[in-house]
Design goal:
170 residues, Arc Repressor Mutant, subunit A, HTH_MarR-typ, mainly alpha, 2 domains, 3-stranded antiparallel β-sheet, globular
């Protein structure tokens, strides 16, 4: 089967500038968040985000699949992180009593204390690195832009962040 050859629609100078700047943010922001959390709490941003999502769940318990959706993670990635967090005493995993095929993840008291201890520094970093650099209307625009991109990247809406009504604070 021959593929149709199409004309490449190159980026305009303005589009290219926006793309180059956006890719720089994609590279620099995760590293900056990881650095802050590593120095302050000995964990990665994803480790903290996982604990934070559990801290907001009813009874601090979620099925692994629901936690994957809330953290925008694949199940294999989440499983590796949960193994590390479980070894640190921050989470427990157990079969769901109603559906033995499913696994529930529970934030332990030590995990809760880690979130409470870590949250102020993390929020300060988010403010310093992102929020305080933007005018209020730009924060609204950032949310709208992110929602539009997530609709393309996650058309089935599997990730919680894709829900444009979501107002997560982490």
């Amino acid at each position: 089967m021959l593929l149709a050859v199409t004309e490449t629609q190159w980026l305009s100078p303005d589009e290219r500038a926006a793309w180059v700047r956006f890719t720089a943010v994609l590279e620099l922001l995760p590293a900056a968040l990881d650095l802050q959390l590593s120095q302050d709490a000995g964990m990665t941003h994803f480790d903290y985000f996982t604990l934070a999502m559990l801290s907001e769940a009813p009874d601090r318990v979620l099925r692994t699949s629901a936690l994957a959706a809330r953290t925008n993670a694949t199940l294999p990635r989440l499983s590796r992180v949960l193994s590390r967090l479980e070894a640190a005493g921050f989470v427990d995993r157990a079969p769901d009593e109603d559906d033995r095929r499913a696994t529930n993840v529970t934030l332990t008291e030590a995990g809760w204390e880690k979130v409470v201890e870590t949250a102020p520094g993390h929020v300060a970093a988010v403010r310093r690195l992102v929020i305080d650099s933007l005018a209020p209307e730009q924060v609204t625009q950032l949310s709208a832009i992110s929602t539009a991109l997530l609709r393309q990247l996650d058309p089935e809406g599997r990730m919680l962040a894709t829900d444009n009504d979501s107002h997560e604070q982490h």
